[in-house]
Amino acid sequence: MATSSRSSNRLPFWLGIAFIVVVLDQFTKTLILGYFQDGESRVVTGFFNIVRVHNSGAAFSFLADAAGWQRWFFVGVGVVASAVIVWMLANHSAQRLFSFAVTMILGGAVGNVIDRLLHGHVIDFLQFRFGVLEPMFRGGYFPSFNVADAAITLGALCLVLDEILRVRRGGK
Questions:
Q1: At residue 63, what are phi and psi to the nearest 5 degrees?
Q2: Beta strands 122-128 and 41-43: pairing type?
Q3: Annotated catalytic, 25?
Q4: Residues 16-33: pLDDT tens digits?
Q5: 3-state secondary structure of 54
Q6: Which of the residues 25, 115, 124, 162 is marked catalytic?
């Protein structure tokens, strides 16, 4: 029982980190909305552009061409995922890597849900180009993404790492 008590004491810390991710995500998207028109792009380096893109779908524009129902579907998925993550944090917040991972996913999910509620789509603006990607992506341009997407990706990678480390420790 002491572990559960100690675990729940860390919940505000993890929720605070998720809140910082949401604030950073929304702040950067507000800057993009203020300084760029839809589709406008500025070259930063030979492999990186800042571009304003509206994504009505999910990762890699999945379901972007649907008739509009996907907005509410993705809002629902984000809300349910967020509730499950808060429950997991409340019960496992002493597990640092796991909690960091799901906190990043939580912050990213909430950031993108806010976009869908406010704009009907997600604002993406980070665009990378690598020649090695040309067989998979036209011109070698990786699909544009945002801070929320980066946090979700970091969280997913940390979940994989957490599982690998857990298995190596003997399944605890």
A1: 65, 15
A2: unpaired
A3: no
A4: 999 999 999 999 999 999
A5: strand
A6: 124
